[in-house]
Write a structure and sequence with these properties.
The complex is a heterodimer of chains A (about 375) and B (about 120).
Chain A (H helix, E strand, L loop, with lengths): L1 H20 L10 H25 L4 H7 L2 H8 L12 H18 L15 H10 L3 E2 L5 H25 L8 E8 L4 E8 L5 H4 L10 E8 L3 E3 L5 E3 L3 H4 E7 L11 H22 L4 H15 L1 H7 L7 H5 L8 H7 L6 H17 L6
Antiparallel strand pairs in A: 1-7, 2-3, 3-4, 4-7, 5-6
Chain B lengths: L2 H4 L8 E3 L1 E4 L2 E9 L13 E4 L15 E4 L7 H9 L3 E3 L4 H4 L5 E5 L4 E4 L1
Parallel strand pairs in B: 3-4, 4-5, 5-6
Antiparallel strand pairs in B: 1-8, 2-6, 3-7, 7-8
Classes of the chains: A alpha+beta (about 375), B alpha/beta (about 120).
């Protein structure tokens, strides 16, 4: 059991390193390095307390997995480098990360997506769901109409991805779960997307203008390989709209047979575009402390379903918010600055060692 | 060689290379976005060149021919939205905003990670 857990943590370090090496230091949202430096002081103690509390209540990992989707948990994993500056002991760090991995494993068939697949459903069940839906299909309409459908759906996905990134202040995977690819036949596959919690009023207050709170799609593709990462990024080998052959979209969870029409999709596209432009005007006026507070609150908000299970308030405490007035400790973030100038492979190697030190408490420099 | 290409500084290479982030080829007129206000200048069929993109870019780049950024990796915002829209993208060029100028016609090969002056 112990060696199995150790092996999983080793794999995790490797997987996070590979994903993180593909992304430079983030430039959005503003002040992210300072925000992370505050967060690491108290965030992981909060995560650990919630996990301990739900365990005390006898809530199982499977029950947690029902409300805390894998992409949401992987988003928490994204921040584990901050543990090095927290007051967690080595044992607490490994317990925390192992527990988060268990929660991911409660839903994902391959927790690390090392196969390039993010399967939350048994493939046979996923296929049944596909077969129940009345898809818009390439062969049923004229070429122009299909091209419009594919373009519109692609643009909606781009806008929704950005909306998630914007409203959840870079915690975009906390508001979507993309899964697949599930095989239809040798040349065709499909993916299922769910965008949820698109009106985070707890953090932003009034967001009535957002046209939807939930959106789901099933997209069938031909002649394309689609790879899913641990952090729920989707990487296709070809242009997705060009390869779309069937689509279903809905404002409801996928249990109905009829989806949205092209006209309805075009209406949604227009509304999403208008909202983001309007929201731009609202957020450009945010000052540095506002951005930092929003960033921190959103990290807590990701864990709101877990806080609900634990019977705790999801928000950071006033004492933690007061800490934001003290100077930031940039020690943990500075470790990443040493990586600039390294090749991709060297970066992966260095990041793997960094994450090992954060999780296992080995403070030796890479 | 076009007038716009002649404006290219001597220190810039013949082609701009970066990470192949979204497959396909797109040709268009360069529109650099260095300030938020530049977003409103983007036209249909333009090749958007920026240091990086943020969620605010998306409503303005729905009809562009390609996206090029100085920084970013395969899972950066620019790469992710470009793949969704089927728009070719090259990210992490380091020099895109220094070597590509408004009005130049370029072809972006998002499969190979190369930007060619036309």
């Amino acid at each position: 059991m112990f060696s199995q857990r150790l092996g999983q943590l080793e794999t995790l370090c490797k997987v996070i390193a590979e994903c993180s090496a593909a992304v430079p230091m983030p430039e959005w949202p503003p002040y992210v390095i300072e925000a992370d430096s505050y967060l690491q002081e108290f965030y992981f103690r909060h995560v650990l307390s919630l996990l301990e509390e739900v365990e005390r209540k006898g809530i199982t990992v499977e029950q947690i997995g029902q409300v805390l989707l894998p992409s949401r948990v992987s988003q928490v994993m994204h921040s584990v480098y901050g543990m090095s500056a927290s007051d967690l002991t080595k044992e607490e760090r490994t317990f925390l990360v192992s527990k988060l991995l268990e929660i991911i494993g409660a839903r994902r068939i391959d927790p690390f997506c090392t196969s390039g697949k993010n399967h939350l459903l048994d493939p046979a069940l996923a296929l049944q769901i596909l077969n129940r839906c009345q898809l818009l299909t390439k062969t049923a309409v004229r070429e122009y109409e299909w091209n419009q459908t594919a373009k519109t759906l692609g643009r909606i996905n781009a806008l929704l991805f950005s909306l998630c990134d914007l409203l959840h202040v870079c915690q975009h995977a906390a508001s979507h779960e993309f899964q697949g690819p599930y095989s239809v036949n040798a040349d065709r596959c499909f993916i299922i997307r769910e965008y949820y919690n698109l009106k985070p009023v707890d953090v932003w207050g009034s967001v009535e203008a957002i046209p939807i709170d939930y959106f789901a799609t099933i997209e069938v593709y031909q002649g394309v390989n689609i790879h899913f990462s641990f952090f729920n990024h989707l990487i296709p080998s070809q242009s997705l709209p060009d390869r779309l052959v069937g689509a279903y979209a809905s404002f409801q969870p996928i249990d109905k047979t009829s989806g949205l029409s092209l006209e309805q999709l075009e209406g949604l596209l227009f509304q999403l575009k208008a909202f983001i432009i309007e929201f731009l005007a609202r957020v450009v006026s945010l000052e540095k402390p506002d951005w930092i507070r929003k960033y921190i609150e959103m990290h807590y908000y990701v864990l709101k379903p877990l806080a609900n299970l634990a019977g705790s308030d999801w928000r950071p405490t006033e004492a933690q918010i007061l800490l934001l007035e003290s100077p930031p400790n940039l020690q943990a973030a500075s470790a990443f600055h040493t990586l600039s100038g390294l090749s991709h492979e060297e970066k992966i190697d260095a990041l793997e060692r960094l994450y090992r030190s954060f999780i296992f408490g080995d403070q030796s420099n890479p | 060689m076009s007038e716009a290409t002649e404006q290219r500084p001597k220190e810039c290479p013949e082609v701009v290379t970066g990470i192949a982030a979204s497959p396909g080829r797109g040709t268009g007129r360069v529109r650099r976005v260095l300030e938020m206000t530049d977003l409103h200048e983007i036209g249909s069929g333009d090749v958007v060149v920026a240091r990086f993109t943020t969620p605010f870019f998306t409503p303005f780049v729905l009809e562009v021919a390609a996206i090029v950024t100085d920084v970013g990796g395969i899972t950066s915002h620019a790469a992710s939205i470009a793949r969704e829209m089927g728009v070719p993208a090259v990210v992490g060029t380091r020099i895109g905003t220094k070597c590509l100028f408004d009005g130049q016609i370029v072809t972006v090969d998002g499969t190979r990670g190369v930007v060619y002056y036309v």
